[in-house]
């Protein structure tokens, strides 16, 4: 706090720890973020509540689902191969190629929808564009 009592954004504070001290903190913190754990211990749980961003994540499961989909997909690799073929002039534009591109676009739109819903921007299926 400043001298007049207003809350201000604090500047970062750096602290050097031995390997053993850091390991002890990491072990004791459990699932809690290390900074929050140190702050709680230092101020005995009596510190001011920290503000979160304007749009906190609404649904971690949806975001995990998206991450899994991205990890399993070959979309980036396939799009890169298509771009190389198009640049070299060796990409034949057939019905099969067009269908594959449409399918890739549909999957990207689906991932975008899941991400937006996970961020709370589309609360349910009816809100989707």
Summarize the structure.
55% of the residues lie in helices and 0% in strands. The protein contains 5 helices and no strands.
Written description of the protein model:
There is one protein chain. With 129 residues, the chain is mainly alpha-helical. The protein has helices spanning 19-29, 34-42, 60-72, 75-88, 95-118. The mean pLDDT is 75.
Helix content, binned percent: 55-70%
Report the average pLDDT across residues: 75
Class by SSE composition: mainly alpha
**Number of helical runs?**
5
Instruction: Name the shape in a single word.
Output: elongated
β-sheet strand percentage: under 5%
Distance between the termini: 45 Å
Number of strands: 0
The radius of gyration over CA amounts to 24 Å
The major β-sheet equals: none
Which stretches are poorly predicted, pLDDT < 50 over at least 5 residues? none
Please write the string of helix (H) and strand (E) elements.
HHHHH
Layout of helices and strands:
Blueprint: H1 19-29, H2 34-42, H3 60-72, H4 75-88, H5 95-118
């Amino acid at each position: 706090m400043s001298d007049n009592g207003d809350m201000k954004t604090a500047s970062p504070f750096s602290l050097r720890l031995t390997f053993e001290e850091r390991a002890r903190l990491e072990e004791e913190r459990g699932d809690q973020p290390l900074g929050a754990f140190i702050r709680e211990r230092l101020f005995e749980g009596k510190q001011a509540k920290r503000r979160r961003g304007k749009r906190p994540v609404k649904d971690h499961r949806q975001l995990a689902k998206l991450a899994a989909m991205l990890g399993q997909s070959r979309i980036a690799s396939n799009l890169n191969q298509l771009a190389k073929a198009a640049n070299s002039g060796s990409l034949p534009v057939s019905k099969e190629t067009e269908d594959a591109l449409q399918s890739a676009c549909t999957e990207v739109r689906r991932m975008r929808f899941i991400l937006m819903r996970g961020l709370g921007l589309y609360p349910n299926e009816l809100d989707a564009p």
